[in-house]
């Protein structure tokens, strides 16, 4: 039983490392993500994660290889596209859906005073990272 637990812990840690944005636009300090459940079928991964972003922090600029849907469990998510404009502010109970591909670069920011907690479902090609790093498109906010 110990080896199964250790292997599962290593797998979750490896998946989080692969899915973290690269250092060009890193997530803010204290941001955490935990895989709750993963199912693979027909070349597609269905992964549910809980992501916590501390007040004043952000995800880093990125894009996804598949569709992403999120539920705000606590706090407020301010979401911005590569044009530096807000494309949504999502309060507790709000749902966000993100498109896939390098043409949909974006960032999520917690401008609130409490930790932002998101439950996020990734539907993506098997083995794809959670996020693909993208350079800051020239926005100077947060």
Automatic annotation (TrEMBL):
InterPro entries, sorted: RmlC-like_jellyroll, RmlC_Cupin_sf
Keywords from the named record: Signal
Source organism superkingdom: Bacteria
Signal peptide: 1-24
Amino-acid biosynthesis is among the record's keywords: no
Identification of the protein by name: Cupin domain-containing protein
């Amino acid at each position: 039983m110990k080896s199964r637990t250790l292997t599962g812990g290593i797998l979750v840690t490896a998946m989080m490392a692969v899915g973290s944005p690269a250092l060009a636009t890193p997530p803010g300090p204290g941001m955490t993500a935990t895989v709750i459940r993963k199912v693979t079928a027909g070349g597609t991964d269905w992964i549910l994660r809980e992501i916590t972003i501390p007040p004043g922090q952000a995800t880093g600029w990125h894009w996804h290889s598949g569709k992403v849907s999120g539920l705000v469990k606590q706090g407020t998510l301010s979401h911005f596209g590569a044009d530096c404009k807000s494309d949504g502010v999502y309060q507790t109970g709000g749902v966000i859906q993100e498109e896939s591909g390098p043409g949909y670069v974006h960032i999520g920011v917690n401008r609130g005073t409490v930790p932002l907690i998101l439950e996020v479902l990734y539907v993506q090609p098997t083995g794809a990272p959670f996020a693909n790093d993208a350079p800051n498109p020239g926005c100077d906010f947060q």
